[in-house]
Specification:
This protein is α/β, with parallel strands linked by helices. Helix content is 49%, strand content 13%.
Length: 926
């Protein structure tokens, strides 16, 4: 096996050819990343101290030849917009927002045309004729202003191109294609000025037309050498995409008719262990990649010669979490996307909060609670502001939509005299002045930076993220000062999103030691012994079709412009180059063909399997997640001394409520969390009235309506009085229970109407009963009752306590009534006997009613009357009062006497004994 890398071979050749005049050599590589590795190779091979050769990328060389500086895509847009305004009549000028939608694509097409030295007029005339042909059958009478404007746009393309080109040329700046076209024009003068210096081109694959002409001219004048890195397998196979470009260069370049073609290797055919591993989802790949790295280190593999190449750069963070602790050093040769930057996420949330507030109502500046909480709970804000009280107020009082003034008032109430400048910066109203908005965002980031410490490692990382976005905002400020074209918050937000791509956070590391983590493009020219490649799926590797151009596919083919086919060939070269000199290769792909990040297995993997080389050991495995024997382990909590003490405290102090007893029957773990541990659900804003909240509102409204009539026999005029107050009382209770929640529109308005209708229906039932001469007297509402149960089997007396919605006397009998906002039927309230009563959840309502009856019999109100306990269901009002019944069908006994209570008490003691029994754990019911 030949262990020499391409850069080692290049270093050897350079020393042989130019040992005593290294400073006269200029080495041009496909990327800047390879420079460090080449310098190290030269250093290892040299025995004396010499001046190193100049090593640059092809883009830098072309920029040097042209004498024109490159500017970023956003600045290009502004420059183009200046040109557009100069050459477009005022009545036809578009806003910057509309202009940028098509201008970005047009600049990309200008770039391609210039990089491949195509005659612009030829391309634009093609496009114009195509558009005209599409509408060849239109009569003059059928043409609309929209069609005319569309055709006029294609007519203007040559004018846009020429004017923009000249404008940039005068400013000595431009896009990449312009720089390449100008470099091609100046190539001869550059060669003349070069003198005795030699340029060495190394490791290239695909060259555009301009690069080809520059390289060929320098080769023709003997001022350059070029070293390719291609395997014989790819070169000889006319169908293999990896050799697509280099095959053409070898065949078409005239200098190869008399000079040797260097270098063709046989590395790919040598012995290799190739493992193709499929696993569901992207995170699975991150875990497997970490395990592979751990295996390699355990087997003594040289981690410095190991590369982890990410087909999808979004996998970086999961990969870092998946790496084993044994990796002492690593180098990340790729930036972390600005889109996932925490500081960027905060700026996006601020844009969302303020633009939504302006769009709702610019005067009152109406805020939405989720927008506000997203800002307040953001990690970079939460630790700085510390406004947990304000967050609690918003959650507890159901603030959904509220004015800017309300937010300031709530803040001042909770934090009087605090003068928090950072809070003001976050929530001060924005206006259409984009300069002010940008200054505010810049100050917010500066405040966060001041708050972060240099001593804490995590905060140092956060500071780096903040600085990256601070640079973006400053760049926007400088653009606005220079061009002044951002005239609305919406436009500012659009440009901010576009410029984010330039805001990558770079990682620092030692490039020559440790595990190398990189993207596909960073791997060019480099060779590794162990290679792990992730996301080898169609759409990722290769990246697939993406037609973001005004130039159709057929026209591109005709004119020699690159299409997705050439793009796939470039990816093919990168992929196979990574494999060429590697010994251990691991190729990971996502087996899911549907959903996010999904795609078919890459064609490269199929090609490897079909065209397998004799010395290659190739295996294909599918890794699935290890499934546990059971989908879910049931929770079980033993009753410790502390738990038993807490149970005794409940049983003897506050007592067990009927609802807590039924919650134990429903799920002992729920009882444990709510009653023993006293864990309550986190208060959150109720945007829509919840079912339990609606039930509470109806209960409270009925209590208020009936309170004036406690202890008196109801008459029709009493009911009429209550009916007249339904709207007022219901609204009052809504405001008490639902607090600041919106009830004048949407689902909540419907809930309000439902509450009124339920109360109205109930009162109409009462009115009908009074009309029929039924004697109804409300004894009490929301009455607190309790009873102490003493039994020889119980370790101590146990209290049962709870509140009864209503107790009334009707025609001489006592009725204990429980209101239910849900639907209940009579059959839910009947039992044949009490055997196993507390073991069955379907009896929960019976248990509650009998507990109420037992507590009532223990109260001073009980005067040996007949007792009935039942439910009024607002969703089943036609049934009216539904009493508990013992027995079958029509023979069921509704009256609850002492014998009934004693029989029930026996079952209740069984339930309490189970709760207090230390040998029976709390076990979850699924």
């Amino acid at each position: 096996m030949n262990d020499i890398t391409f850069l080692d071979r290049l270093a050897n050749q350079i020393i042989i050819d130019f040992q005593h005049k290294l400073n006269d050599v200029q080495i041009v590589l496909p990327n800047k990343r390879a420079k460090v590795f080449l310098l190290q190779s030269l250093k290892n091979k040299l025995t004396t101290t010499v001046f190193a050769p100049k090593i640059i990328s092809i883009e830098d060389l072309v920029q040097d030849i042209s004498g024109i500086r490159s500017i970023d895509s956003i600045e290009l847009l502004f420059e183009f917009y200046d040109v557009y305004l100069q050459i477009t009549p005022k009545d036809k000028q578009q806003t910057f927002e509309l202009f940028s939608n098509w201008a970005k694509t047009l600049i990309q097409d200008f770039n391609e045309i210039d990089r491949y030295l195509i005659e612009p007029k030829k391309v634009f005339s093609y496009l114009k004729e195509i558009e005209a042909l599409k509408r060849w059958d239109l009569k003059p009478s059928d043409k609309t202003s929209l069609i005319d404007n569309h055709l006029e746009f294609w007519d203007k393309l040559p004018f846009y191109y020429e004017t923009f080109y000249k404008h940039l040329l005068n400013k000595k700046c431009g896009y990449q294609g312009l720089i390449y076209r100008e470099a091609d024009k100046k190539c001869k003068s550059f060669a003349a000025e070069l003198g005795n210096k030699i340029i060495v081109f190394a490791g290239f694959n695909a060259l555009n037309q301009a690069e080809e002409k520059i390289v060929q001219h320098l080769l023709y004048t003997n001022q350059a050498k070029i070293y390719w890195d291609i395997d014989d397998v790819f070169l000889k196979d006319s169908f293999h995409d990896s050799g697509l470009f280099i095959r053409r260069f070898k065949q078409d370049w005239k200098n190869y008719s008399s000079q040797p073609f260097e270098w063709i290797t046989n590395c790919f055919q040598e012995e290799k262990k190739i493992k193709i591993i499929g696993t569901p989802k992207s995170v699975g790949q991150a875990k497997i990649a970490g395990n592979i790295v751990e295996e390699l280190t355990n087997y003594g593999a040289n981690i410095n010669k190991t590369a982890l190449v990410l087909g999808d750069e979004n996998l970086l963070i999961p990969i870092l979490y998946g790496l084993p602790n044994t990796i002492e050093s690593l180098n990340i040769t790729m930036g972390y996307s600005g889109k996932n930057n925490p500081a960027q996420i905060l700026i996006t949330k601020l844009f969302k909060l303020h633009t939504n507030a302006i769009n709702r109502n610019e005067k009152s500046y109406t805020l939405y609670y989720k927008d506000v909480l997203e800002v307040l709970n953001h990690p970079l804000v939460e630790s700085y502001l510390k406004v947990s009280k304000l967050i609690s107020v918003i959650n507890d009082n159901n603030f959904t939509f509220f004015s800017h003034d309300t937010l300031i008032r709530l803040y001042n109430e909770k934090y009087p005299n605090s003068n928090n400048a950072f809070f003001d910066l976050l929530f001060n109203k924005w206006n259409s002045n984009c300069d002010e908005v940008l200054k505010t965002l810049s100050l917010i980031l500066l405040q966060i930076k001041e708050h972060l410490s240099n001593d804490v490692e995590e905060e140092k990382v956060s500071k780096t993220f903040v600085y990256a976005i601070y640079k973006v905002i400053n760049k926007l400020i400088s653009y606005q000062e220079k061009y002044g074209k951002i005239d609305s918050i919406e436009t500012l937000q659009i440009i901010y999103k576009q410029i984010l791509d330039l805001a990558e956070v770079s990682f620092e590391g030692e490039p020559l030691s440790g595990l190398q983590i990189m993207g596909v493009l960073e791997s060019r020219v480099l060779d590794f012994e162990n290679v792990i490649i992730t996301s080898v799926n169609e759409g990722k590797f290769p990246s697939g079709k993406s037609q973001n151009s005004f130039i159709p596919f057929d026209v591109k083919r005709e004119l020699g412009l690159p299409t997705y086919k050439e793009k796939d060939a470039i990816y093919s070269y990168h992929f196979y180059h990574l494999l060429m000199r590697a010994k251990n290769i691991y190729l990971l792909y996502n087996t899911d063909s549907e959903g996010i990040d999904a795609g078919e297995k890459s064609r490269f993997l199929t090609q490897l399997e079909i065209e397998k080389q004799p010395k290659h050991s190739l295996t294909h495995e599918i890794y699935n997640a290890v499934l546990p024997k059971s989908a879910y382990e049931v929770m079980e909590i033993e009753k410790t001394e502390k738990v038993l003490e807490r149970l005794k405290e409940i049983a003897t102090d506050k007592g067990f409520s009927p609802s807590s007893l039924t919650s134990y029957i429903r799920n002992p773990m729920q009882f444990y969390f709510q009653r023993v541990l006293r864990i309550r659900e986190v208060e959150e804003v109720e945007e829509s009235v919840a079912v339990n909240t609606l039930g509470t509102i109806i209960h409270e409204a009925l209590e208020e309506l009936y309170k004036p009539f406690i202890g008196v026999y109801l008459a029709q005029h009493h009911i009429e009085e209550m009916l007249s107050k339904i709207e007022e009382v219901t609204l009052k209770q809504f405001k008490i229970v639902y607090k600041e929640g919106e009830i004048k529109k949407g689902k909540n308005l419907l809930a309000f109407e439902v509450a009124k209708r339920n109360i109205y229906n109930f009162l109409m039932t009462e009115k009908s009963a009074v009309k029929n001469n039924e004697a109804i007297k409300v004894i009490c509402l929301e009455a607190s009752l309790e009873v102490i149960i003493e039994h020889e089997d119980l370790p101590y007396p146990v209290k049962i306590a709870g509140k009864v919605d209503r107790i009334e006397e009707r025609n001489g009998s006592i009725r204990i009534i429980d209101y239910k906002s849900g639907k209940v039927e009579q059959r839910n309230l009947r039992v044949n006997d009490f055997d196993g009563l507390t073991a069955n959840l379907k009896n929960e309502k019976v248990i509650q009613l009998l507990c109420y009856a037992m507590m009532f019999q223990n109260s001073e109100m009980f005067q040996n009357q007949d007792i009935q306990a039942g439910i009024i269901s607002f969703k089943n009002m036609k049934e009216g009062f539904m009493p508990f019944g013992l027995g079958k069908g029509k023979n069921a006994i509704a009256e609850i006497n002492m014998e009934t209570i004693e029989s029930f008490k026996i079952e209740l003691v069984h339930l309490i004994l189970e709760i207090l029994n230390e040998e029976i754990p709390f076990k979850e019911t699924l």
